[in-house]
Design the sequence.
């Protein structure tokens, strides 16, 4: 185990916010965490897990011991009649995993191409895009208990996946509560990729690509290329403009609430869910309040997609996490005043 002190975190969060970790350990396998637990000084410190840093807002230096998850590995772990089971280490870059699976002939993750972040972070918020969510392709994961160092496996039901949510986002409220936030870290994730693959093309942006190209039976690699092109056209590349992807979740409302909102603005973008509730496009709500392209301090609203907040800081005037949160609160207030809906942030605020 290698302990590093006063580590700049700017390269480790896609928002590009400057902050330091007072102490940081790179976790490449279960033995690193066991070494932390065996160390009399480190074992008493609070801990903060860091993956690809693509879903966090840093509001200051991190005083807790940062566990930077860098577990490597990418392999075909098993084959069943119906699936290829691919295992990836928590530290593997998500997009690299998607690209690798397609290059090796295992389709199924193509709709989730180019999502920033690491494999280990992907189950935490059950990432998803263009009609496919992580839980649709998930088999199991290995996690390590942050108190005992014990390694255990969880299946999909035990992970409690729902829209941008899992047990890893919730702290335990008692002995029977499965909340694992702060209690366990993800080491490896296994994906079940279907041998009888079917393209998922129900999403409007992909339908448009089929019409544009005249290709109505795309391969998985073709869908991967389309998704990359769609995302590059409307989402900022974190290497160029700091951001954490969608900043708010798309809210769900009852049909009555939706009728009330339609009465205020008939153009509101909404989708009917199987359970009778209605999902609203948060980006549309924010856009309708006039936020697209606006800034507060050095934090801004991306000009091509209002759901994405961006870093508009410079070397002399860096953007702080506080400015991002001030902008987020101003957006929440105006959407609430106009539509009566309180938007819920997606990233974890540290
Ligand atoms: N819209 C606007 N103005 C905007 C933004 C969106 O009018 O500024 C409208 C769009 O025209 C569209 C609707 O809102 O009719 C939905 O927009 P979009 O298709 O871009 O998808 P989204 O709901 O904003 C979600 C995910 C994205 C994911 C895309 C594609 C959430 C919170 N976000 O965005 O995920 O890539 O669908 O599946 O669920 C992420 O989580 O970081 C992320 C990028």
Sequence:
């Amino acid at each position: 185990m290698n302990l590093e002190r006063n580590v700049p975190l700017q390269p480790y969060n896609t928002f590009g916010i400057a902050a330091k970790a007072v102490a940081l350990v790179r976790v490449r396998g279960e033995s690193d965490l066991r070494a932390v637990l065996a160390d009399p000084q480190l074992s008493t410190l609070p801990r903060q897990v860091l993956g690809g840093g693509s879903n966090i807002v840093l509001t200051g230096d991190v005083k807790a011991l940062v566990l930077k998850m860098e577990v490597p590995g990418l392999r075909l772990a098993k084959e069943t009649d119906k699936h290829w089971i691919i295992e990836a280490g928590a530290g593997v870059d998500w997009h690299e995993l998607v690209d690798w699976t397609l290059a090796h002939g295992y389709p199924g993750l193509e709709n989730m191409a180019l999502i920033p972040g690491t494999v280990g972070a992907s189950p935490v918020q059950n990432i998803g895009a263009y009609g496919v969510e992580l839980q649709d392709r998930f088999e199991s994961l290995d996690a390590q208990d942050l108190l005992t160092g014990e390694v255990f496996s969880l299946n999909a039901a035990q992970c409690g996946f729902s829209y941008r949510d899992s047990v890893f986002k919730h702290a335990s409220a008692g002995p029977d509560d499965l909340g694992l936030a702060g209690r366990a870290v993800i080491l490896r994730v296994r994906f079940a990729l279907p041998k009888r693959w079917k393209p998922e093309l129900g999403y409007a942006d992909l339908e448009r690509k089929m019409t544009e190209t005249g290709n109505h039976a795309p391969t998985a690699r073709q869908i991967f290329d389309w998704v990359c092109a769609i995302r590059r056209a409307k989402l900022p590349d974190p290497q160029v403009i700091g951001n954490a992807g969608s900043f708010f979740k798309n809210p769900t409302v009852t049909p009555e609430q939706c009728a009330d909102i339609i009465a205020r603005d008939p153009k509101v973008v909404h989708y009917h869910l199987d359970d009778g509730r209605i999902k609203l496009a948060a980006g549309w709500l924010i856009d309708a309040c006039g936020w697209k392209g606006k800034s507060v301090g050095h934090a801004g609203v991306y000009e091509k997609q209002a759901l994405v907040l961006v870093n508009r800081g410079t070397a002399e005037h860096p953007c702080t996490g506080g400015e991002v949160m001030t902008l987020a609160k101003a957006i929440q207030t105006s959407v609430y005043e106009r539509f009566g809906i309180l938007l819920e942030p997606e990233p974890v605020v540290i």
User: Anything to note?
Assistant: Residues 3-69 form a domain with the Uridine Diphospho-n-acetylenolpyruvylglucosamine Reductase; domain 2 fold (CATH 3.30.43.10). The chain has a mean pLDDT of 95. The helical segments are 30-38, 94-103, 156-159, 204-213, 220-234, 255-264, 282-288, 321-339.
